[in-house]
Structure of Dehydrogenase:
Amino acid sequence: MKTIPQYNWSGSFHYGFRDWHVPASIEALQELVAKAPRIKVLGSRHSFNGIADGEVGLSLSALPLDLEVAADGRSVTIAAHATYGQLAQLLAEKGLALHNLASLPHISIAGAIATATHGSGRRQGNLATAVAGLEILQADGQLLRFRRGEPDFEGAVVHLGALGILTRVTLETEPAYSVAQSVYEGLSWQRIFSDFDAIMDTGYSVSIFTDWDDLGGRIWVKRRVPAGDFPDEIAGARRVQGKRHVLTGLDPANTTEQEGLPGLWSDRLPHFKMGFLPSSGEEIQSEFHIPRQHGVAAIEALAGIRAEFAHLAYTSEFRTVAADLLWLSPQFEQDTVSIHFTWHRRPQEVAEAVRRVEAALSPFVPRPHWGKVFTEGRFEALYPKLPAFRALRERLDPQGKFFNAWLERHILDA
């Protein structure tokens, strides 16, 4: 038994684990799982709710990463508990890359896939869409493998930790590429509303940040190299000289390089560098995925009530993500505009602010990020494949070994 990690990455969520294990081999893991009545795995602890909570907890950090590269170089297989930062270092040695990365390279592959965590880009799917194969440890300690194209694969990828323990994952790769990014400031609310689509087309991965004040926002544009020179102006916003943090006023030392300087894909697609504390540290996060056609109207609705929540938000980020066919992905059969909130760590006040945000967004049928803070979720209406997922879970884990109170509330009682 090891020291039990009591809090998530930002200190905003307290876990309830009473026992904690760190198996050093797959065999030891299989034995633990087969004997436990209920058990959960905790990865990089970047969730902001109880999705990974439980009584008996596991860390897979002692298992080897064991990277395997396909003979054609078009995919790699690695232990699922690896972080994207660790994977990127290994891929660099092979001259390979992924199609996308999230803002933080610190997060585990398994957790990102389970919750359909995403990067940005109108034509890029979330991180789970790179999955070509899964190895899941079942309740009886046996390993089950899913491959793309097989029955239930699209239901098993975004699994919320409810189907078993993801031990290894196969991801599609491509030749390594370079990316450059530049930041633009002085984007007015009027231009956000009128030019949103055009702004999102200015790069491979584009984000708009706002503090919800009268000034509007700023644009972070990431372009694959070569992609031509960055313009001096986008939608009235001027290109910045010098480096910026995504949170106004913070030291930008931990953010990835800007000013149009090219670098390896893994050193530019995230907003934050590996090895540094990302974002503000002490925070709460929420995120809502809106059907693309309603994205601008949803942002306008929030701007109209920003006085009700702006004092609690460090910043918000607007991004776009492409549609997919993964059953519980927020992008299931729809392109989305993602509206992210980085909140001050004031839980009670943030909970009320989230309720007001959800009320303003309700006409636009938002799907909340599975790993972040939300209060409502009409998941039966939001996810047409939810009944099929429940049936898959019942078949793979009829005793509910991998369930917890959060999953019971949001999946069984949705």
